[in-house]
Amino acid sequence: MSATPFAYDGGRLHAESSDLAAIAAEVGTPFYCYSSAAIETAYRSLESALTGLPAKIFYAVKANGNQAVIRTLAQLGAGADIVSEGELHRALAAGVPPDKILFAGVGKSDGEIVSALRADILQFNVESEPELRRLSQLAQDMGRTARAGLRINPDVDALTHAHISTGKADNKFGIDIASARELAGRAGDFPGVKLEALAVHIGSQLTDLSPYRDAFRRLCDLYGALRAQGVPLKRLDLGGGLGITYRNETPPDLGAYAAIVREETAGVEAELAFEPGRFLVGNAGVLVARVIYVKEAQGRRFVIIDAAMNDLVRPMLYDAWHDVIPVDQATDNAPWSPADLVGPVCETTDTFARDRELPPLKAGDLLAICSAGAYGSVMSSTYNGRLLTPEVMVRGGSHAVVRPRGSFADLIAQDRIPDWL
Q1: Of 97, 130, 139, 200, which sits with the fewest C-beta atoms within 10 Å of its C-beta?
Q2: What CATH homologous superfamily does 36-280 map to?
Q3: Does the domain made of 6-34+282-413 have the CATH classification 1.10.8.640?
Q4: How, if at all, do strands 146-153 and 193-199 pair?
Q5: Long-range contacts for 118-122 (Cβ within 8 Å, ≥24 apart)?
Q6: Does the active-site annotation cover 346?
Q7: What was the pLDDT predicted at 171?
């Protein structure tokens, strides 16, 4: 699968066959732009790799919760992996059937559990005994039975960034194998729950496949042992985490990944669930911004743009790399030189890149911050009183605004002034 759907045509950067500068003139900057074709290509590539397996794909909504993105994937056949009540409502509104929704997360509230029970979702991934007990009680109170899986913490190092590793013993996620075995053996203590699955998710942005093999093997060993003890399990949720290219990473080969799944689940009677997020949408999006000023100070070049850390927090939060390219293609003889690419927010951490080689730039020039389709807009805020960045989706030469910018009046109207003022 190609890394990006964004390419120059006639010296101008396009999303598929849509001119990004033309979209900027219409929508204003900054804005996110997503390629429908890239999302579809990523989904079909994973689906193809899993051919012949009893596999279902559940899109991890936390990666990008825009309704147009979720619906694009739902129409391809994807379910939804959710981690909150808000994501439940987003998935349902986008057309995902309840029986194709998995609910993960270490801290589900009573209200969230009740909403998901009312919707009759496919599966709760339970992450502790207190959660299992509460799920059982709430289901009984409603006269229902919750279908559930135990999320296992296999104590496997995902070899990824520490902030997005979720499968080690010292992470907050999941239940250790010994405790899971003991809990499954006491399934009768939780009459409101029907235990149907084991689940695992060891982290995000994985580029090395060996942690998957270790985690899947431990999960399958436990699954077989519990089935032998009479626990009526029927599903293995193998999580997500497949990495993408941001800079020089080599994403996992899907054929090799699927081969590991086949080898480790061979002889196991189970439906298989997969929860990709970043893999499906990460390289399908860019954040387009306009240069406000170019500032020379103390021998450094600062390129100040109208996007900020509230629009894309990953560089500040993870020191993440995103390629930055001009929308108008630089000429071959343009002298590129180091620059700090920064936003207008009053924080030193409002920085997208330091000492990055960039072409000559001036006020009004457009830049595209690449690989911004996952954990971009979905993590944005209105810090500094900034409006949420609009989102645009393209299909070929057509584009649609799938989230408008909003107004300052709307932003202020969310507040309420007490009577005494």
Answers
A1: 130
A2: Alanine racemase (3.20.20.10)
A3: no
A4: parallel
A5: 118/142, 119/88, 119/92, 120/144, 121/88, 121/147, 122/79, 122/98, 122/147
A6: yes
A7: 56
